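hey can u check if this looks right to u? its 232 residues, i copy pasted from the old doc so theres a chance i mangled smth
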Amino acid sequence: MRIAIIPARGGSKRIPKKNIKHFYGKPMIAYSIEAALKSGCFDQVIVSTDDQEIADIAQQYGADVPFIRPADIADDYATTMDVIKHALHWYQNQGEVIDHACCIYATAPFVQSKALACGLEALKKGTYDYAFSATSFPFPIQRALKLTPEGTVEMFMPEHMNTRSQDLEEAYHDAGQFYWGTADAFLTGLPIFSNRSFAVLLPRNEVQDIDTPEDWKNAEVLFSALQSKDIQ
């Protein structure tokens, strides 16, 4: 059995009710649910939440809410891995056998069903424990700067002061959209970022963290531009 787990607690502080706030015409969480359903990768798409309003909206868009998340993994200190493990243990207690699970963030309106399917295909090969979304940094990380206490700057890697950009190795980062994994990998807590993980590479214009009001505005502008491009 394969399941999608969408974590969506009700206690967002920087953007109140972020998971169900309307984004470009519908609740933010709807995009993750719809992408998961459209992908055809899952036997069940569930939302793990401690909030009944979120549960009701999730069900309206086709997700299942088989349980209400316990309070001890719904505070500011609970990790995504805590939420995934809880869901997997819940299914085990119901006698269900989970082979693969995919955690999809509720605030990922750019997530695409084709990217989810790509991650699953990588896992099916049996070579990887995880597959996750990633994208490239827009600027060479070897040229990164840090601020000193005096307000001046220093290079993290001064040895690359004069290295040509085209000669620097490209670097990538977690795109924060989804994490596929075998049930065993999640339950045993294997690290996601390792040589047993496959990176599903996304274009930078399809990636935007949404943690602050400024992020939200940037995401709306980017989403609108992508929608206009699709219409043309």
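The mean pLDDT is 94.
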